[in-house]
Amino acid sequence: MHVSVTPYQLFLAAIALYFIGERIAKVIRREKTQTIFKVIMTIGIWSVILAISLFPKTALYLSKQLGMGENLNTLIFSGFILVFIILFKMLNILERNERNITELVRKEALKGIAQSKHKSRI
């Protein structure tokens, strides 16, 4: 059985291995920005990309097993939907953080004004 690997497949595999290695290195260095969720998601996503890049028939097999037939476009479209769901979730979290920061800054500013008025009366 002869398996031919194209330069494109090798390129994708190299990128996937780079990101997996980078995440593992960050965990080893115990960087504070690392969470278990980020580590698992990053390694999981890039492992899937690695597997599909080296074994492209895996995507076709997965598509058939999920009942999508031999149409890989459906699988790709489902992936885009998943990416957009994650993107919107991240945007909601970002907006909530911005609101929280704005509220904290306002409270601190009002507290500073109240303290300066109190000191000026004394």
Structure write-up:
- With 122 residues, the chain is an all-alpha fold.
- It folds into two domains: 1-55; 71-122.
- Helix content is 82%, strand content 0%.
- The chain has four helices and no strands.
- The chain has helices spanning 7-28, 36-54, 57-65, 72-121.
- The termini are far apart.
- 2% of the residues are buried.
Please specify the SSE layout and strand pairing.
Layout: H1 7-28, H2 36-54, H3 57-65, H4 72-121
List descriptors.
single chain, 122 residues, mainly alpha, 4 helices, elongated
Strand-residue fraction? under 5%
What is the residue-mean pLDDT, rounded to a whole number?
A: 81
Strand-pairing-aware structural class: mainly alpha
> Can you write the helix and strand succession as a string?
HHHH
**CA-based gyration radius:** 24 Å
* Low-pLDDT runs: none
* Count of the separate structural domains: 2
Query: How many E strands?
Result: 0
Oligomer classification: single chain
Largest sheet: none
Report the span from N to C terminus.
90 Å
Helix content: over 70%
Looking at the structure, what is the overall shape? elongated
Our count of helices gives 4
